[in-house]
Amino acid sequence: MLPYWIFFAVPALAALATGPAMRVRDDRARPIEMNSTWLLILLILTVLIGFRYEVGGDWANYLRYITRAYSLDFADLRTLDDPGYWALNILSLTLGFGMTGVNTLGAFIFSIGLVVFCRSTPRPWLALACAQPYLVTVVAMGYTRQSIALGLAMIGLVMLGRGRFVVFIVWVLLGALFHKTAVMLLPIAAFSSSRNRWLSLGIIISATLLGYKVLLEDSAVHLVQTYTDQSIASSGALVRLSMNLLPAILFLFYRYRFLIAASERNLWSVFSLLAVGMFVVFFPSNLSTPLDRLALYVLPLQLTVFSHLPDALGVFGKRNQVVIFAILIYYALAMYVWLNFAVHSRYWVPYQLGVA
């Protein structure tokens, strides 16, 4: 377990030692700079995620992907679900890198998205520390396809926060090439527009229909049957939905104290209401698996809220160390409980580096 704690401790200590980035009333005015430190973080994340060996609950499933890819070439992509992920498999085999190559390429894409998203927040190190226990450890090291889709979607969300709707659509559709469920982020964007709402709504609806037609139409029935199969349940789904619920409630309560643009406030308000709704729906339904998987796309809400919260509260001094410390304790406890008591954590422990 020690490596996981090191992965968490480094950004946590950096979060305690540094103050907020440039404070502006519109996050679109905050530049996203990729200095040498964050390029190193990108490299480390890529290696730690990409060179893992027999880590993650779906390891055997992804071995089947690489095995099947031996009989495929790039011309076959048009007939396959999630063609982006198949392309990574074919490319890795062509280069002679095997499954490690697939994982590393996927880790690189995910890590770019995570780093860009963290750098767009006022406290990047705090956002990165919040990402470690679940987003990095569980999702990136366990759900490779969906983590790639989420990484690309996070870039899209940063662009959306800067009012770039079309760019957001492009990034989300790219993510859907790796895991088709990413298209479900598209309708959410329409609600974030504070101007030209009807035009934005028309663009989003058109993009959603296009994404469904190209990526989901042939497999939609199978996808629904798989995710609504009552014999398939996601253990721990309630805990993970609760982790989205807390920042959602905090944001809805304090959203006018966040130094963000109106479009971003609308966007994260929609995410917050979605998180609350998913938590409520969990109890009367048998949809733990679809809710659990869809909740992955709400995870950026945690990074956004907790990276802004110390300055939104603004009552404990310049660096608001008490709030930061409380947030880090919360995530440390979450990681401790998951590593020691989660049903499937045995697939992550011990962490191993290797080549497959």
Q: What fraction of the residues are assigned to beta strands by DSSP?
A: under 5%
- According to DSSP, the number of beta strands is 0
Helix percent reads 55-70%
Shape: globular
Counting DSSP H or I runs of 4 or more residues, the number of helices is 16
SS-based class: mainly alpha
Radius of gyration: 20 Å
Largest beta-sheet characterization: none
| Distance N to C terminus | 21 Å
**Low-confidence runs (pLDDT<50, min 5 residues)?**
220-233
What does it look like?
With 356 residues, the chain is mainly α. It is 67% helix and 0% strand. The chain contains 16 helices and no strands. Helix 6 runs antiparallel to helix 15 (300-313). The longest helix is centred in the first third of the chain and has 22 residues, at 98-119. The protein starts with a helix and ends in a 15-residue tail after the last helix. The model is unreliable at 220-233 (pLDDT under 50).
